[in-house]
Specification:
255 residues, alpha/beta, TIM Barrel, 45% helix, globular, binds 2-phosphoglycolic acid
Length: 255
């Protein structure tokens, strides 16, 4: 069976103390719960930039990995306030979230810009958690499948088969992020299956079987089990519920 991947996206929430305290708590839990370790889930935590280095040091040698929440689309230069893939690699960071709807909406990240970021990330050997999702309007007009296909075609699908190994796909309906509203579980399964099929048509069965497609959008400790039961759901990208250690641990246990 495929390893489930549980990703915590802390967004712009935790400070230094919260970050280090949470990670130490998480490690303590893993040390005690041999059962969980046996299940071999992969845990990825995305703290804010200033705490990536210390976070990486804390989780060194464990099954917990650290991801950045963004990179700039250039490697270096006069871009005040920005952080590059090269900088992240220099502190041992190997993962980055790209395409999150908050970045697309508040920072005008188009598919074109995201493709540039993908190139820079791959060039610097960063693994990419790539978010895709439809708006409520698209969903209401039954355009969710075509919207997802377009997002893939204009970004990831320009990559080679070899490069695809570096991606985790996060399907996140935009209307479900931070709202407490979630799609029906069977709808999530249908979309994940659709995404897998698009990968199969483009790259073949080996790739489509292997790629991890996680669900994100108002996952809680109460609903996560049902999501994880769906055949094509390979884990979760968790926002709000990842900010509470007990809720997050329940989600890990359920996976
Ligand atoms: P949420 O966020 O769990 O708070 O809905 C998910 C996300 O933004 O990735």
């Amino acid at each position: 069976m495929k390893k489930k991947i549980i990703i915590a996206n802390w967004k712009m929430n935790y400070n230094f103390y919260d970050t280090t305290h949470f990670l130490r708590h998480l490690l303590k839990f893993f040390n005690h719960e041999k059962e969980i370790e046996k299940n071999h889930q992969k845990i990825i935590i995305a703290p804010s930039y200033p705490f990536l280095h210390i976070s990486n040091q804390i989780v060194q040698g464990t099954n917990i990995h650290i991801a950045a929440q963004n990179i700039h689309d250039m490697e270096k230069g006069s871009y005040t306030g920005e952080v590059s893939a090269i900088m992240l690699k220099s502190i041992g960071i190997n993962n980055v979230i790209l395409g999150h709807s908050e970045r697309r909406t508040y920072f005008n990240e188009t598919n074109k810009i995201l493709l540039e970021k993908i190139y820079i990330a791959l060039k610097n050997r960063l693994k990419i958690i790539f978010c895709i999702g439809e708006t409520l309007n698209e969903r209401n007009n039954n355009k969710q499948f075509i919207s997802i296909q377009k997002q893939l075609e204009q970004t990831i699908f320009i990559c080679s088969v070899k490069e695809i190994e570096n991606f985790i796909i996060a399907y996140e309906p935009i209307w479900a992020i931070g709202t407490g509203e979630v799609p029906y579980y069977h709808e999530v399964q249908k979309m994940h299956n659709h995404i897998r099929l698009l990968f199969k048509n483009k790259y073949g069965k080996f790739v489509s079987d292997k790629i991890h497609i996680v669900y994100g959008g108002s996952i809680t400790e109460l609903n996560c089990k049902e999501f994880f039961k769906q055949k094509d759901v390979d884990g979760g990208l968790v926002g709000n519920s990842s900010l509470n250690i007990n809720k997050f641990l329940s989600i890990i246990k359920a996976s």
